[in-house]
Design brief:
- Four copies of one chain form a homotetramer.
- Chain A is globular, with a radius of gyration of 19 Å.
- The longest helix of chain A has 14 residues.
- Chain A is built from nine helices and twelve strands.
- Chain A has 288 residues and is of the alpha/beta class.
- At the A-B interface, helix 6, strand 8, strand 9, helix 7 and strand 10 of A face helix 6, strand 8, strand 9, helix 7 and strand 10 of B.
- Chains A, B, C, D: It holds the Pfam family ADH_zinc_N.
- Chains A, B, C, D: This is NAD(P)-dependent alcohol dehydrogenase.
- Chains A, B, C, D: GO terms for molecular function: oxidoreductase activity.
Chain lengths: 288, 288, 288, 288
């Protein structure tokens, strides 16, 4: 997504750290407070005010200088307090992947205990969706092409693990739900996969569109969209207020984000290589 | 949609008439009451209980014997009282087209005065959407390929009429809304048109998917769905409770459904021909 | 509500005017823009962040210096654009009374065409509630002790006018609604009147608590609150975002606020006297 | 609540049992199904259709013959499937107390993980509210006059236990929440206690009015209701659809209802005596 960012450019959107100093008129934080960054800089609450023709993507580490640095300067409006029960390495994973899952399932989805949730794959958002859904008492279905990853997902709370290499996963969903389908489909793949999400969703269920792993247009048969009448909701991370809600929830549901490996600041190339290899959980860089 | 209906089969889903006689234990109606039929037989309130794999379409005149008849027998649960301010010819148009527009904009959409609504074309649902939106104080945009139809739409309350043969209608929307886009897009076309609906919709706006005029899959670029994060809602008419709400509203907003021509019962062939020719407003058959 | 405001103090919360000059970094307005003030200074969107033990009342003209002045300086965050279809004298009435009625009926109430609304009396909020409800296609009931005021209310769109001196108004409501009660009760009286609002409300209806004309505690029989299960909502004006929504709506529903008399700046004592005498509509001071 | 029920009358509203036989045309159940009864007979989904002047109370064991019997005959519409993870003795407790708590917190309240919930006392509804709130990841506060009951409540998941005999419980709430107050107050006392609930609730929080232990009118100072703007919701148990949702949730959150003692059918007098003595958890009669 080349966006003409000015060079030199500091990448990175997800940060946890300590407030070293505050400017004049700061009211939200004091020196020494542990904080995490807000992904959509300046989106505080309510709807995102965006342009309909050429929507901006005003995020930290993209439109604004990022956080892969020992020290950053940013508006106090772009920060929230870190959760008390997480380390910095864990807390920084909430900023994008955690909030996206929370926003889809809770803020927009109003997930209730006893509902069914489908998670596709084991990427960062998918694992948070699995953990949040399980913590809320939902019945979680997950698909993956790896039995090993499914076993780990089961340990994290997934009740139904489907290897999509071994069977048609939509048929498995129909069978496992007695053809009732899934209340909340978290579609982190997109493109042509959306048609399968529509096949899997329950009547009047919800599909959260999050990912663009498949580069084709998002598409599905129109008849199914009318007959089953799902709510389809595009998700673009979330507001600072919702991030604060997530932080509060994390402390009470004792959610421990899944992290893959940690790297030193000077190991950034190895960290990116690990990302390319397919991590299970978030990769953390310790800049300190 | 061949569905193996038993022959002889009576078609027709939309009916207004008078209760001639009631069966034992009837509590909702008395002889002489003016009533209209409910499209989705047996869907009373809340979510539609449907099969996720092979969703049924349990509607009158399709899965059940229809209403193109001088007398019909049906459960009192499938009827609601007719509005007091409409003739039978007008009242019967609420059953499918009227309720679909109401369900999209009001029941699901929560439309508020001052919001923007885009109506595509001048079909039955589109005209109801135009009239309901205008009655609720919305700012209505409409597209058509006919200047004559646009002129009639303007007389019905549309504030912005766009001839999609003469200009790119999405660009017109962007220009007319100062690139803020449309709060409620009523997409009665579907298929590849959905991509244009996504281009036209406001950030965090709503697209109601209603029609299948375009037979291709419903598709749009994934990036726009994430950046603008619209709510996309498949609409399959609505419940009996919502039909009752619409009836009550019709009397208070003095909504007069647009009807095209009326035909005698024995003119059914001509009525169907008129439908094929492209009616403006609903076609009515007087069976009495 | 003596709150230790510093003297000299400028009263007044509702203002319409023109931006004379903008400070460095201003982005929301330009010189020459017509604006109105936001009642709850700093409440932009979402929930009001307030203290549960000693809730503040951070409003303009109370906690902050007010607007009864030829020139005021305030943060651009405390202003919204004025509606294009209203004069300044009309526009300033939206700030408190208009937004309160809008917030109760639309933002919180989700009012739909065809629903019933009860307005109690003919104060500023009550008249806005009447006009907004009627513009949205609701069926409006109003009570007053004056036949003359009821006649004016009828001209503004009220369908059922009840003189509470001549009959028990709750019994009138029961009779007029066929004992179904009222969907949205706008209680601008409070205190012991709340019990009558509960008697009048429909099963699962809504009561918006707005006024404190009766100084007794707000009270009602518990059994009725359980059996009819209304939603009771305290209303404290509303956010800046909702004020922007109202402004947009006003232009599209052509709402013309009811104003009583206008006074010159040096006639303030007479204006306050008129207020004490019981105005019908808002009183305006032209400070220019 | 003497209601002129015909004698002989069978009391009791909460039942779990097995379908012994089904009538012609039954579709929801088969012989042998484990079922529980629905409290509000005939309230299936959506709003309760009730009279505004003299609201009915059409519940089983009150307006209809009850369930304290070895065999009962009732419409299949008045039953839902029992949860798979509960015994009959546990399952029957969901019908009234369980559904009331669920309806207040989840159906109406939309409770989210991380929010604060206040439970007053340790009655049947209160204990369910505590357990449901904790299962959803909420932070639970509870008041009681007994340290022993508070200790048991702590074991059930309450994080903050306040002995209202030893301190002003509202002041304790203010202190423990850093004066932010409580997001969801479950007021099972009513009457004059409502004023304390209003003092305790957070700005824009929610108070569910459930009980009538205090026989005075429900009352609170009007100023607090406006400044804090809580949503106050009368709760009258709930619909059959919500009971089905609760049953599904119970199986997934592994909720085990708290039961006090079980009695044989012929020990009914002792059971009622135990009820009068103040049970902790629900009392069960085994009629089999």
């Amino acid at each position: 997504m080349g966006n003409g960012m000015p060079m030199p450019f500091t990448p990175g959107s997800d940060m946890a750290g300590v407030v070293e100093a505050v400017g004049l008129g700061t009211t939200r934080f004091n020196q020494g407070d542990r904080v995490i960054s807000s992904f959509n800089a300046g989106w505080i609450d309510g709807k995102l005010n965006n342009n309909a023709k050429n929507p901006h993507y005003n995020t930290i580490g993209y439109a604004y200088q990022g956080v892969l640095a020992e020290y950053v300067v940013m508006s106090e409006e772009w920060l929230v307090k870190a959760p008390q029960t997480l380390t910095d390495a864990e807390a920084c994973t909430l900023v994008c992947a955690g909030l996206t899952a929370w926003f889809a399932l809770i803020e927009r989805g109003g997930l209730r205990a006893g509902e069914t949730v489908l998670v596709q794959g084991t990427g960062g958002v998918a694992l948070f969706a699995l953990q949040i859904a399980r913590a809320m008492g939902a019945e979680v279905f997950i698909t993956s092409s790896s039995d090993a990853k499914l076993a780990t997902a089961a340990a994290l709370g997934a009740s139904h693990c489907i290897n999509r290499k071994k069977e048609d996963w939509v048929e498995a969903i129909h069978r496992l739900t007695n053809e009732q389908g899934i209340d909340h489909v978290v579609d982190t793949v997109g493109g042509r996969n959306f048609a399968d999400s529509v096949r899997a969703v329950a009547s009047h269920g919800r599909i959260s569109l999050i990912g663009m792993m498949d580069t084709h247009d998002t598409s599905a048969p129109g008849a199914m969209l009318l007959l089953k009448s799902p709510t389809v909701q595009g998700i673009g991370v979330g507001q600072r207020r919702a991030l604060g809600d997530l932080v509060r929830a994390v402390d009470w549901i004792k959610l421990k984000p899944v992290t893959d490996k940690s790297f030193r600041f000077d190991e950034l190339p190895q960290a990116l290589e690990q990302l390319d290899n397919g991590a299970f959980g978030k990769i953390v860089i310790n800049v300190g």
